[in-house]
Amino acid sequence: MSVPSANPQIKGWCPGAHRPMMSGDGLVVRVRPFRAELDRDQTLGLCALAQRFGNGTLDLTSRANLQIRGVAGEDHAALLAELDGLGLIDSDPRVEGHRNILIDPDWRHGDLTDRLYGAVLATLPDLPDLPEKMGIALDAGRGAHLRAGSADFRFEISDEGGLILRADGAARGRPVSEDTAMDALREMAAWFISTGGRDHGRMARHLAQVALPGDWQVIAPCSAAAEFTIGPANGGSILGAAFGKIDAAALSVLMQETGAPALRLMLGRMFWLRGGTAPCLTQEFVHSPDDPILRAHACPGAPYCPQATVATRQIAGRLAAQVSGSLHVSGCAKGCAFPRAADVTLVGREGAFDLVLNGAPWEEPSQGGLTPAQITNLEEVI
């Protein structure tokens, strides 16, 4: 058996439905539900597909998408046909690969956010060939809820209530109207490509090297709103998924027992049951906003990812209560589960862990070569 490299391969793209990614347990097939919402039939259907074609679980990603893991190569075409029948994928693989759209979870049918989403869908085929990790945030609701989400082009609201388009990494944006928003998006995407943005991959990294036009940096977005939290919410309930792992059978039972007509996916690896009765307290989901597991992040790790050299989630679950801030246990230096700085980061390398304090997985560790036994008590290590 080969040992994964200490320098993991960064593919520059994320798995999709048409273009899955091979992992240690089979293909990873990512589903990007339109408007981050699944109705009851779509939810139950997707749960059934995860059990039929995958390993019985769904991964809720950091961008509020869902992944079916463990799919056999010979089953991919049949799975695609089923997903298409549920209305969960694009017919055009190129569009599907670039449909990284974050949407305010409190959107309402016919509101500005909903209308912008439809406009973005119509505009995607016209945009230049952007790096597949790039995304768009539609944070144009009654509060700014997507600041922590990974996006490169951000539609937001100013303190005066006007719509702006802000490049990620810039403090201010350019004023737009609903009628001019898509033209502004096309212009910014074209600028990114023409100024060498593909070499940097993401907008914020590009802006660290290339100056954005001054007239695109004139209005600041409004202050971030209070975050959504687990518990009752607008006639429904918000629940969490530890490390984003959802047991498909348990979710199916949850939808049937609560009678919820729809489910919305959220940042923070949370999901919102829209209506229905209050869910029963079960260990399959996170029911308390104070649960320390919500501050912990971990990828599937070994043996599920071929680039990981360590198991991750069991360790993260054991250590979560020991860290007052954020904890990230990463199978390798890519940091897929939380690609940013955490208060405490443990990075797998050649079967052991490097410790990074107040940093990202790819940054210089303060200690290296720690075994799982050595990190049972973090106070003794930090």
UniProtKB/TrEMBL annotation:
Pfam families: NIR_SIR_ferr. One of its GO terms (molecular function) is heme binding. The keyword Acetylation does not apply. Residues 20-84 form the Nitrite/Sulfite reductase ferredoxin-like domain. Keywords: 4Fe-4S, Heme, Iron, Iron-sulfur, Metal-binding, Oxidoreductase. InterPro entries: NIR_SIR_4Fe-4S (IPR051329), NiRdtase/SiRdtase_haem-b_fer (IPR005117), Nit/Sulf_reduc_fer-like_dom_sf (IPR036136), NO2/SO3_Rdtase_4Fe4S_sf (IPR045854), NO2/SO3_Rdtase_FeS/sirohaem_BS (IPR006066). This is Precorrin-3B synthase.
